[in-house]
Amino acid sequence: MNKFPPFPQDKARLGLLGVAFDENSSYKRGPALAPQKIREAFFCDSSNLWTENETFIGVDGIFADIGDISPGQADMPIETEHAASQLHKAGLKVIAFGGDHSVTYPLVKAAAKFHPALSILHFDAHPDLYDNFENNPYSHASPFARIMESGLAKRLVQVGIRTINGHQREQADRFGVEVLTMHNWRDVFNIHFDSPLYITFDMDCLDPAFAPGISHREPGGLSTREALSVIQSLRANIVAADLVEFNPAQDPSSITEMVCAKIFKEIVARMLA
Ligand code: MN
Ligand code: MN
Asked: What is the whole-number distance in angstroms between the Cα of residue 233 and the centre of ligand 1?
C-alpha cells in the first residue's frame, strides 16, 4: 500500500480526513500544508507500516480515506463537521490530520453526535481555553472554551501544558478541566477513561527539539518517546483523534513530518487494539 484506500470501503475500521486549513492561526501560517506532508511521511520508504505493538497496518480492511478538504475560513466549521460526520455515520472511527487547532471544535461536534459522554485527551503546550483571543473566538487559541461551553465533552484532560496564564487558569477551573502541566509531567502516564475517548494531538506538546515544525516553539515539552508512551498506556475506547498544528513551513529538515507519521501510526495501533 502506498496510499490509503478511498472512502467508502466495505470493510474498514478507520476513516481518514485531511484538513488543509490555517486561517485561524494567530501567529504563523503553514498547517494548511500538513495533510499532504503527513501522507507522504506515512508511506515514506525510510520506515515501514508496522506499529510498535507489531501490527501490520498496510493491509486492506483498515482505512477508508475521504481525502483532504481545503475550506475557506467561513466554511471551515461546516465543511469539517460534515466530512467527519460522514465517516462516523459509516460506523468508522475517525482520524483527522492537518490544520490549525481551530479544526478540533467542528471535529468534536461531529464525534459527540455519534458518541455522547465523550472524554477528550488533549496534548498541547497551550490550554487553548481563551474566551476570545485577538477578537477571534474561533481561533486556534479557543477551541476548548467553545467545546466545554457547548457541553460536548464530559471530561477534558490536558497534558504537555506549559504556558498557562491567569485567564486560562480561571477558564480551566470554570470548566473543570484536568490540567496536567509539564511542571508535574510524571502524572501523565496511566490515565484511565471510562467513556468514549477523543484524542487531540497538537504537535507543539512535544519539545521543539523533537518536533521543530510548529508555529509556536515552546521549550520544555514532552519527548516523542514520552508522548508515545502516554498513548500506548491508555486504557480507553478511542473513537476519534486529530493531529494538528504541524507547520511544514517551519520544518526544513523534514524531521517533524516523520514524527507526525509515527504519532499517527501509534494512535492507529491503539484505535485498532
Ligand atoms: Mn493547540
Ligand atoms: Mn499548542
From this structure: 22
Tell me the residues surrounding ligand 2 (ion) with CB < 5 Å. Answer: 124-126, 202, 204
Ligand 2 mean position, distance from CA 16 (Å) = 22
Which pLDDT belongs to residue 241?
Answer: 99
Cα of 1 from ligand 1 centre, angstroms: 32
Do the domain assignments include residue 1? no
Under 8 Å CB-to-CB from 135, ≥6 apart: which residues? none
How far is ligand 2, taken at its centre, from the CA of residue 1, in Å? 32
User: Could you tell me if residue 4 is inside a domain?
Assistant: no
Closest by CA to 144, choosing from 160, 163, 157, 162, is 157
What pLDDT shows up at residue 187? 78
| Residue with the three cell numbers 508515545 | 228
Instruction: Look up the CATH number of the domain holding residue 247.
Output: 3.40.800.10
Using DSSP's 3-state secondary structure scheme, residue 93 falls into: strand
Q: Which ligand is nearest to the CA of 244?
A: 1
pLDDT at site 198: 98
